[in-house]
Amino acid sequence: QVQLVESGGGSVQPGGSLRLSCAGSGFNFGGASMAWFRQAPGKQREVVAAIYIGSRNTWYADSVKGRFTLSQNIAKDTVHLQRNYLKPDGTDMYYCAAEGDGMGTFAAWNFRPPRSADFAYWGPGTQVTVSS
User: Fold this and answer.
1) What does the alpha-carbon distance between residue 17 and residue 124 come to, in Å, rounded to a whole number?
2) What is the rounded distance in angstroms from the CA atom of residue 32 to the CA atom of residue 14?
3) Residue 16 in 3-state DSSP?
4) SS3 117
């Protein structure tokens, strides 16, 4: 059974940092693609960053380039999203997503951004608040 568990959410002031983690189980982590999505209240879920574990290739939304960094720990089947220079966005839910066919999913990112339909597995989400 596939399971994704996010952690690291909380409250932080603008300009601060926060690291989110996503631990996966029940699938071939080394061959997967994984992504982080965020959703503000009343808004659509949007992709923030994605990584193909097999090659460590990453994709970032323009709004977070230079501020957010993805990393992976294959030994622990975990992906981290380091978020720096946070903007006062209020409260968002951050969701971790995974797709076992990592290479096929990653190939599409050359032509378009990652999207929700690319990923079969989702975590329950973790809440993040950036506010003064």
Assistant:
1) 22
2) 33
3) coil
4) helix
